[in-house]
Design brief:
9-stranded mixed barrel; 4 helices
Length: 221
């Protein structure tokens, strides 16, 4: 057999039989006739990479409930292009000072991770610790839970194989920054990344329908 195995053993696949034969010879008892088998080695643990570079995000509201999003990881210069720009920062960024100027703070995790608490608590703590942050997003597979500075707690969901859900949080931030009300997204939000449109459902993170917020700013403010 070619490859790494030839550098490891001269008899690949025969370890169980050869070792059992030696052990039974040492004990001086007959070797069983059944095949010598070994439990397969478990796969090594896998921790997906966590990308914590700060993002400069360009957004454009291109329809009633459509937002285009272009993200730049730690750009050296201010990105050029149409739309409004904001800063989105992972909570574990290497430069914690950026959290003070972030418009959106996010992190990735499991919703039942006991180290972080439920997403609704984590998002509340982030907004309390960082008063300059407008929106906190706890990203899970296929979606995220977001809390706005106005107190709305929302769930964004889309195809798990589509875009990074953190981009949906940036799109929502840009849409709400125009003074719009979350209740107007009861039919969903369309997020454009490049030439691809992602259909994102927007629901209240908890019981009850999506309703108009008493704290929503009038459009145009």
């Amino acid at each position: 057999m070619s490859g790494p195995a030839e550098f490891t053993t001269s008899a690949p696949g025969e370890a169980a039989a050869r070792l059992r034969r030696i052990f039974y010879d040492v004990m001086g008892i007959p070797e069983p006739t059944a095949p010598a088998l070994l439990d397969p080695l478990p796969l090594p643990s896998y921790d997906p990479p966590v990308r914590t570079s700060p993002l400069r995000v360009l957004t454009s509201v291109v329809g009633a409930t459509e937002v285009s999003v272009t993200r730049y990881a730690d750009p050296r210069y201010e990105p050029q292009g149409p739309g409004e720009a904001h800063t989105a920062v992972h909570e574990d960024t290497l430069d914690p000072g950026l959290l003070a100027i972030a418009d959106v703070i996010f992190r990735y995790g499991s919703p039942d991770d006991p180290r972080l608490g439920p997403p609704e608590y984590w998002t509340a703590e982030v907004l309390e610790r960082h008063p300059g942050c407008a929106l906190a997003a706890y990203v899970t597979a296929g979606g995220c839970v977001v809390r706005t500075r106005d107190g709305a707690l929302l769930r964004l969901d889309a195809d798990p194989q589509a875009a990074d859900p953190a981009s949906y949080a940036s799109a929502l931030h840009a849409w709400l920054a125009l003074g719009k009300d979350p209740a107007d997204l009861a039919g969903g939000l369309t997020v454009w990344t490049g030439q691809t449109a992602h259909q994102v459902s927007v629901t209240q993170a908890g019981p009850g329908p999506l309703t108009h917020s008493d704290h929503a700013r009038p459009e145009g403010d």
